[in-house]
Design brief:
- The protein has 469 residues and is of the alpha+beta class.
- It folds into four domains: 41-145, Beta Barrel (Thrombin, subunit H), CATH 2.40.10; 160-258, Trypsin-like serine proteases (Thrombin, subunit H, Beta Barrel); 264-357, Pdz3 Domain, CATH 2.30.42.10; 376-467, Roll (Pdz3 Domain), CATH 2.30.42.10.
- The chain is 24% helix and 34% strand.
- The chain contains twelve helices and 28 strands.
- It has helices at residues 2-23, 33-39, 54-62, 72-79, 108-111, 245-258, 275-281, 299-303, 322-330, 387-393, 411-414, 434-448, and strands at residues 43-53, 86-97, 103-106, 116-120, 127-129, 131-136, 141-145, 168-173, 181-192, 202-205, 217-219, 225-232, 240-244, 264-265, 268-272, 289-294, 310-314, 317-318, 337-344, 347-354, 356-357, 376-377, 380-384, 401-406, 422-426, 429-430, 450-457, 460-467.
- The protein has a seven-stranded antiparallel beta sheet with strand order 5-4-1-2-3-7-6.
- The protein is elongated.
- The termini are far apart.
- Residues 11-24, 60-66 and 361-374 have low confidence and may be disordered.
Length: 469
Amino acid sequence: MRKLICFIISLCLVGLSSSSYAFFDTNKLPSFSELAEKASPAVVNISTVKVVEISKRLKRFFSPFGENDPFNEFFKKFFGEIPESKRKEHALGSGFIISPDGYIVTNNHVVSKADEITVILKGGKESYKAKIIGTDPETDLALLKIDAKEPLPYLTFGDSDKMRPGDWVIAIGNPFGLDHTVTAGIISAKGRVIGAGPYDNFLQTDASINPGNSGGPLLNLKGEVIGINTAIVASGQGIGFAIPSNMAKQVIEQLKKYKKVKRGWLGVTIQDVDINTAKALGLKEPKGALVASVLKGEPADKAGIKVGDVIIAVNDKPVSDSHDLTRKIGLLKPHSKAKITVWRNGKVKEFWVTLGERKINMAMGEEEIPGSYGGYILGMKLREVTQEDVDRYNLDSDKGLLVLDVKQGSKADEADIRVYDILLKGNFKELNTVNDLREVIEKDAKKKGALLLLIKRKGQTIFRTIPLK
């Protein structure tokens, strides 16, 4: 019996050994040498110079008043004038050539505010002064141009949408100034939002990316650029981020044509749909972008989109959340028509919107609002909005309830209701008095298990949901 058990164990070990060998068969692993050899000549080293006035830096360092410091005369008397001098600050990055006539893609942060930009080709034997054709800080992309003596080697863009987590990729760049370093890895994830801008949609990779790699290409096994290496997690290893090529292509085309990027604009403020909000709206799952306000006279308003609509698709492509909607609309051209699908009162509706051109909005500051106190409801202390509030804070009307206090740990606190919020509607019913809110809670919200509040905050309207079960 003991011999039989030993024989079975031996067979298992042999099977494991052979299967492990098959799994790790080195003959099946790709070699990147040929790909790196072909792609490297189109990858460039970008060196920038920024001229800084030393005296101004020193004055800002020693005094918050800078050159207008009232004690300047005192220091001049005893120490004399700080001499004016200039210093050059150098920085390095990467980029890649996209056409034989010398157009080069890199990151905006590599060339931003540079006084001089030098592009160095592989081997360091040839260098050229580059000019900026256009930049897009919101996606961190820049397009440069050099005038070369002969046609240059170049790379083409691939389809980043076809890349899947687990696909092989290689990165080529100049980390820490180490010329044309090649690293390999896989796509770790897609659609990463890291807070870099409104259009975050990064590819995550474990191919080594370090300072100096910024602006360099991330290549698939065909040698096509499927990403532009842009960001890293400083405290992590094997966590790098690249701008997808499908986004970059559209941006680069516009930079080449207009020297800036023109983006579509709906004219709404939006927010994500959470589980409780989905429940209050009758949605099966928390997806889409909830319209918190519609700007008067803007494209969405003209098309008939209303506050409380949930945008669930753009041109028949599903919208997962508010960030996804911003990205989808931003990639469309101004004055083009877009099919917007919304969820309204339990039904699906479609609208054709002629998009405007996106503008950067400024948020209003927060001020304290005086007034007497009312009663607590769900942890909120409220009072009705007065005409004084309308005049002082440029409100549309004197309707609504002003939040003057929120109990810590209450349902309202957990739902992110804040002091000085103005409650405009509860489950889409206007709130003119405290009794209106009580009535909405008793007759509607308790049945649905959630109270959906339309709120005015810092000049914008937003939704917040208070779960009641």
